[in-house]
Amino acid sequence: MLKYELIPMQLLHTGLISKSNLFCPEPVSEEVVKLTHDLNYWISLRDLTLGYQEQRRIGFPLTAQLVERELRIAQGTIDGARFAMKHGIAFNVAGGTHHAGSNWGEGFCLLNDQAIAANYLLKSKLADRILIVDLDVHQGNGTAEIFANVPNVFTFSMHGDKNFPFRKEKSDLDLPLPNEMEGDAYLSLLNEKLPAVIKSFQPEFVFYLAGVDVLATDKLGKLKLSKSAAAMRDQIVFNNCKANNLPVQVSMGGGYSTEIKDIVDAHCNTFKAGFDIFEEL
User: Fold this and answer.
1) Cα 237 to chain center, whole Å?
2) Tell me, what's the pLDDT at 279?
3) 98 has catalytic annotation
4) Which residue from 9, 104, 141, 189 has the fewest beta carbons nearer than 10 Å?
5) Catalytic residue among 99, 138, 159, 267
């Protein structure tokens, strides 16, 4: 998507970042992928043998370039998690591939970047308790399935109740939202639930999926948040992380507004909120 090129260009143009803040990840290793995804599923991706119906569920034909892209996104999220441990926060301009389950791809997602990174942190003993905050308008069904029986990872999802995926998985905390929900109600619910989850679960690390398909301008979202409300959403997440000394890795997730400017502006607002709150960057 064009937004993945435009976001860093806009961040550089506005002076929010410099070129030294950017990095280009290598593809993640097969060994790390297998910590999260079923071996047979991974082999079918790697060898480009995924069946027609499985490719149709993903939404585009399988190519070597597409697999490499997903591998680089996953490694970028791992690298970002390590940078976050040093600086407090780090971002993946792409990522948020939360519809990929342990043995399936779906909704333009082949490999689940934040799930892969979370399992990497657990395996490497870099964190023992991980919270995944998914505020994309679509439920993170793949993430929920992957961690359904993993007590060290808490999955939190606020999503449209009547939106894709129509067969939901069970997160540790699902907050299904009605169509047409506006910013005040959304922010009130997040302000109530997120601090309670942090207090009860006591995570050591947070992954945040900051989809901007919550915007009222989004073609697929069905919610009614303004850009300012979406920015306040990000501020709530980052303020809670900062207040609890929790490093946070951020992946961008969805955004399907008619005007590309609305998408890029909202994503860049997420970066700005993080930079303002984690001042040391």
Assistant:
1) 13
2) 80
3) no
4) 9
5) 99
